[in-house]
Amino acid sequence: MANRLASAISPYLRSHADNPVNWYEWGEEPFNEAARRDVPVLVSLGYSTCHWCHVMARESFSDPELAAYLNENFITIKVDREEHPDVDASYLAAASAFTQNLGWPLNVFVTPEGKAFFAGTYWPPLPMSGHPSFRQILEAVQDAWMERRDEVDSNASAVAAALAAQHTPEAGALPTDFAAVVRALEGYEDTQFGGFGNAPKFPVAPVLNFLLEVDGTEANGVDLALRILERMAASDLRDEVEGGFFRYSTMRDWTDPHYERMLYDNAQLLDAYTRAWKLTGERWAAATAHGIADFLDDEMQLAGGGFASAQDSESTVDGERVEGGYYKLTAAGRSRQTPPALDEKVLTGWNGLAISALARAGFAFGRTDWLVAARRAADFLLERHLRADGVLVRASVKERTSVARATLEDYGMFAGGLLELALALGEERYATAARSLLDAALLEGRSPVEPPARDTPAQNPPAGTATAPIFAVPGGHDPVLAAQGVALAADPSEGAYPSGITACADAAYTLYLLTAQERYLSAARAAMAIVAEQAVARPIGFGGALGVMSRLASEPVQLVVVAPDAEQSDLATAARTHPATLVAVVTEAQASAFSSAGFELFEGRVARNEAPTAYLCRDFVCQLPVATSAELASANRANG
Prior knowledge:
By secondary structure, this protein is α+β, with helices and mostly antiparallel strands. Helices cover 46% and strands 11% of the residues. Among the domains are: 11-165, Glutaredoxin (3-Layer(aba) Sandwich), CATH 3.40.30; 557-638. The strands form 6 sheets. A 5-stranded mixed beta sheet has the order 1-3-2-4-5, with helices on both faces.
């Protein structure tokens, strides 16, 4: 039997290389082989820090007898959902026709043509509590394939047709009053232990960041977010030794966490605690932000500069492999053990989130080491994940790059990270690279919103307007999914982190604030109009989109501080914690470089009288420049 996973890019796939199952990697070959043999295909999706994925691997996929049955009657494909998120999204959508208990491992049975006809998640090796064993599931699927083939094909065709019929939702009006949204989120609050909902309890970082941004509502979203963030900082969800946050807790009171630590969670929580500190000046917020940033820098950044996607929950402690055992030790105890393994897969989008968060935190707290970490990751991605033709790579491990197509989240999140780094460092080249990425994903001429005149308030798309996609991945969908007709359009759904649509809209809005080009504002509005109805109806699942919508509903405030040279000043220090929508501290030479590259916000920005000078603007309409932090504070009060 060929060992096809031993040389896989994905650490998750390589962890299955010793299984007696005849695994294939994702691609055309296994489907062609299934058609030749006329057998069904099992597509099994998971990721390296998925606890139940490891359990099922040990219990079932390592069982020689069960593996022999699989190899005789099925073609089996193992997929890392983090490497192929578009494949995962398609199969999740198909699996929802068979089970509401979606999660990972996700095991989907499909025809050789790629059409799903049955799906589930974890199945035990033996029947338990009314749940069938994995072997019983396999035998039932095989029986249906052999004895009721017409029924199987009919069900598969029906599911495929339903997926194909999915279309981009009609445009809805963007919300302008977020009070009802905040009140709805208050309804999710666990007032006893903090956080949202019951067990299992997740940090839901996108919602917390939205609440910290939204203002002017009769319901105070900031207070809600601060209550939750303070409780989380003092809970078992946070690793007090190394500073990072675990993925979720199995109990309502934040105890008994699942100990994997995800890059996307910690990046977004760094943003949240940085914002909390800027709003309140509280020591707990600063200490937590510092802990997360140091964790990302010390534990998650790889030698090459990119950030690992996750750290495992399991490790070997005193010769015994246990979940969470390492994290229950003190710093001294950990020094005598081997740390849990990193999933060294560098994902472009998730790295973009980390770059963005470290750039903002480094700028706010004046920590050049965090800015260096953000720069190293950005330079690594620009060198290794951006091809000469401008197309992004989704993932890499060490010297190897994945063949997986980049997704919208990669383009949007990386562009957003580069923009934040450009502002934090004053380096135009990062903003120019971000603009190129977003332009590659922006479908010019497809927006349903005509750019408004500069003296006319921007309008929402009329409710019910049919919308074409605003952003699309250069090069198209995964070729196997596309050939099978089961590729999804851009997925607007969110959860633990923003969707690709939201990430692109967010980057587009920032580009508008830098360039004054209405096409970016128009694209951001049109993209958010696609998800507006869903986001307002279910805000707990659309925090990222609501954050972009709240910014679009507010008049932007832009602050540029220009100094003759790079020497720090009181004015620059005051700018670091200023509440403006966009803040940049640059030298005159840097301002000139931005202006020459087409970033209109910097046009004519000079250090007056050879002294640091601040320009405070509302949507590019600026007050008279000021030269002291006291004058900036006064101008800010006058600006509302």
